Amino acid sequence: MRFPKGFAGGATKAGLKASGKPDLGVVVSDRPCVAAGLFTKNKFSGSNIPFCRRALKEGGIRAVVMHAGQANACTGREGLEVARQTAIAVSGSVGCGYNEVIVGSTGVIGVLPKLNKIQNGIRAIAEKGLTPDGILAAGEAMMTTDTVPKTASARFRLGGKMVTMVGIAKGSGMIHPNMATMLSYVFTDARISKSALRMAFRDAVEGSFNCLSVDGDTSTSDMAVVLANGAAGNREVKPQGKDYTAFRKKLTEVCTDLSRKIARDGEGATKLVTVRVRRASTFDDARRVAKAVANSNLVKTAIFGRDPNWGRIACAVGYSGARFTPDNVMIRLGKTLIFAKGKSAEYNQGLMSKYLKDTDEVLLEISLGSGRAEAIVSTCDLSYDYVRINAEYTT
Amino acid sequence: MRFPKGFAGGATKAGLKASGKPDLGVVVSDRPCVAAGLFTKNKFSGSNIPFCRRALKEGGIRAVVMHAGQANACTGREGLEVARQTAIAVSGSVGCGYNEVIVGSTGVIGVLPKLNKIQNGIRAIAEKGLTPDGILAAGEAMMTTDTVPKTASARFRLGGKMVTMVGIAKGSGMIHPNMATMLSYVFTDARISKSALRMAFRDAVEGSFNCLSVDGDTSTSDMAVVLANGAAGNREVKPQGKDYTAFRKKLTEVCTDLSRKIARDGEGATKLVTVRVRRASTFDDARRVAKAVANSNLVKTAIFGRDPNWGRIACAVGYSGARFTPDNVMIRLGKTLIFAKGKSAEYNQGLMSKYLKDTDEVLLEISLGSGRAEAIVSTCDLSYDYVRINAEYTT
After folding, report:
1. Cα(B207)–Cα(B74) distance, integer angstroms
2. Do the chains contact at B302 and A391, CB–CB below 8 Å?
3. Which domain holds residue B83?
């Protein structure tokens, strides 16, 4: 993987995770970045969230620090202070303002992370030295119930220069749009104006992270942040024109790639499930149907059981609240029509079970027959392991 | 159990269930009943639903027939004809109009029940003869993944006479308010006007069946119907006054009892979970919070794991969409305060784990500190067995 110019990262074992695995990471830019971020809408937001919102409002960002083990959410005044002191520790080692640092936290809700462990860890990372591929190490350090790290990248010409973009993300449970329990960071050396970056990121997130669901639970600590440091030297991307379009497209691809990887690694998942809703009256209707299907425990257990149970899909479409005429609805599993005109289509059930058994990525396509809007939601199946992981994951 | 005068029922093995268990039931009143019913809001409603709506609109009801195995939902024109012919078969054996029959169906969506089996079964039930306690047999015949039949009853003085009320219900999965995959019938010999019965039933259902969730999936086939045949000879209950209040209270108790039994027998459930939300600004806000918590897979798996994980409860409260000030929220597990002022309260975690281990009925109480409204939602935990049942239950 090629890394964006001017960014470097590192990680360490700070002793926050009971497992003793790496649990603290830092990514630093050698110059101030234009940045945009979107945060959880949960009313019990993490103690680090208001801190990050303020930092993004105030100006340029130099660094991101992420720690895993304790989410630092529902931790009261002490939690706010831990977030602030974490940023101060990074600012000391980087040599920037503490309000130029984004702090990401994930783990158990309601437990205060030990500040001195974080401070010692940040020192240890600085002493070891940061490297470009340390960005990936930072991505691994923020894993919780994730089984694999999630990364995505793009490299493309923009405004006369080669531009690089690398994204890292974590998230496996408590995953639901607006946002997921998800920390997601995209680093790019593109030069872009703040308003252009914000617009492009809002668009990219709407169609990617906000179309993602593992278990329907919107976490307290979600964030998606993009940093652009301009080191590629391209002419600055403005909020319109072909540079903007090209940048937004690549940013959307990177975010979509990350969000699909999160769904694929959903807690206990054995399949990536893509729910595509077509021919809806509006995007909202399309997404409402796609989310109802993606969030249905009955649909998800049927897929885990390799059972082409379109009745459960139709049922979820029916209670989604979207507008449509039932007789116009068509449901496809993979490329095969299995439901049309209000009842079962003629299809080979054995072949469908085999499709569910063999494919790694299940495609459910629902056509509402009432318009031209479309939405795609990524999710996963619901297995014994989901229950095991969440019944045993302890407070 | 005492049965309401003038009602009798019966059941048989019609061969609709693969298991060979009883799968067809009939309950008949010896005189026309005043009736009220509430049906699923799912847009893919069962083929029997429009038939029942019409029957209730037209006038008196004499009988209810219920069959299990195939839901007769998403079965097209043939499905409508099966529902109509089922009612005709009952009308023939009872000697009433076919539009005086309520038809309830439950089972796999999208599979047409075999009409000749239903017709033969209805004949067999009539030949065997109906009895008061045959009402319970009919209740057992409609079970699908239910592990126990659900009944509730009340006996009370009303307008100078003793009145009896018996309810039967089924429902275990695809259970969510508005309505649940639930068939629920209440039979009473009270004399009551149609408008009074409708008002009382709407109220009773709102606080019982519509405050019930097993898995968040609203089925295609839900119905709750009450029949009152007047055989008790009390003075007619009108839509107000103390007779009305007494009747509504008992009807609500019977419906609440049934709905709690449905939650307790939720697919794979090891615990009944009661989520009580107090001090909300409005009933809608209270119910929104209670449902968000009751529908959270993470809360439900934590309870299955006997883990007093209040972070997941707070998280669900936070994304519910209700209005409240986070610092005012208090969460109790049983009688113990575990969360207040935005963070963990001082409590003994070992005692809480023990409470979750020992109690059969878990009480979660959430005070929003913003008003005087209250709602109670019944649900259950999420276990390995939920996944097993729904991954293996086949189309």
Report:
1. 29
2. yes
3. 7-264
pLDDT tens string A122-165: 999 999 999 999 999 999 999 988 888 999 999 999 988 999 99
Catalytic residues of A: 181
SS3 A382: coil
- HEC string of A268-311 equals CCCCEEEEEEEEECCHHHHHHHHHHHHHCHHHHHHHHCCCCCHH
User: Is residue A189 a contact partner of residue A231, using CB atoms and an 8 Å limit?
Assistant: yes
> Can you spell out the DSSP letters for B240-262?
SSHHHHHHHHHHHHHHHHHHHHH
Among A42, A44, A175, A219, the residue to mutate for chain B (most B Cβ within 10 A): A44
- pLDDT for A99-110, tens place per residue? 999 999 998 888
Maximum Cα–Cα distance across chain B: 67
Judge whether B359 counts as a catalytic residue.
no
Residue whose structure tokens are 């002022």: B341
> Is A180's pLDDT higher than 50?
no
Cβ atoms B28, B225 nearer than 8 A: no
The predicted pLDDT at position A104 comes to: 94
CB contact under 8 A, B109 and A315: yes
A339 vs B216: CB contact, 8 Å cut-off? no
Question: Maximum CA pair distance of chain A?
Answer: 67
Highest mean pLDDT among A169-178, A323-332, A381-390 belongs to A323-332
Task: Let me know how long chain B is.
Answer: 395
Show which of B229, B245, B264 is a domain's final residue: B264
Q: Is residue A1 part of a domain?
A: no
Give residue B177's pLDDT: 37
Phi, psi dihedral angles at B92 (to 5 degrees): -65, -40
SS3 A375: strand
Write out residues in chain B with pLDDT < 50, as ranges.
Answer: 176-180, 395
Can you tell me the distance from the alpha carbon of A111 to that of A73, in angstroms, rounded to the nearest whole number? 7
User: Considering the domain boundaries, does residue A2 fall inside one?
Assistant: no
A-chain residues within 8 Å CB-CB of B291?
A: none
Q: What is the pLDDT of residue A293?
A: 94
- Mean pLDDT of the region A287-304: 91
Are residues A225 and A301 located together in one domain of the fold? no
Please report which helix (H) or strand (E) contains residue A302, including its range.
helix A297-304
Tell me the chain A residues in contact with residue B173 when contact means C-beta distances shorter than 8 Å.
Answer: 298
Residues of A in contact with B385 (CB under 8 A): none
Specify the residue for token string 């006479």.
B161
Q: Shortest Cα distance from B115 to chain A (angstroms)?
A: 18
Q: What torsion, rounded to 10 degrees, do the Cα atoms A358, A361, A367, A372 define?
A: -150
User: Which residue, B44, B306, B218, B144, is CA-closest to A297?
Assistant: B218
Q: Is B297's CB within 8 Å of A217's CB?
A: yes
Q: Do A317 and B44 touch (CB under 8 A)?
A: yes
Counting one residue from chain A and one from chain B, the pairs whose CB atoms sit within 8 A come to: 206
Instruction: Say yes or no to pLDDT of A386 above 60.
Output: yes
What are the φ and ψ backbone dihedral angles of A58, each rounded to 5 degrees?
-75, -30
Q: How many angstroms separate the CA atoms of A210 and A289, rounded?
A: 14
Question: Which residue, of B207, B230, B264, is where some domain finishes?
Answer: B264
CA distance B34 to B37: 11
Length of chain A measured in residues: 395
Dihedral angle at the C-alpha atoms of A16, A22, A23, A26, nearest 10 degrees?
A: 140
Residue of B nearest to A219 (CA): B315
CATH at residue A388: 3.10.20.340
Give the pLDDT band of residue A395 (cuts 50, 70, 90): very low
Chain A positions touching B174 (Cβ under 8 A) are 298, 312, 315
In a domain, A203, yes or no: yes
- pLDDT at residue A354 in the model: 92
Q: Which residues of B touch A301 (CB under 8 A)?
A: 386-387, 390-391
Residue B2 maps to a domain: no
**Alpha-carbon gap: A296 to the closest alpha carbon of chain B (Å):** 6
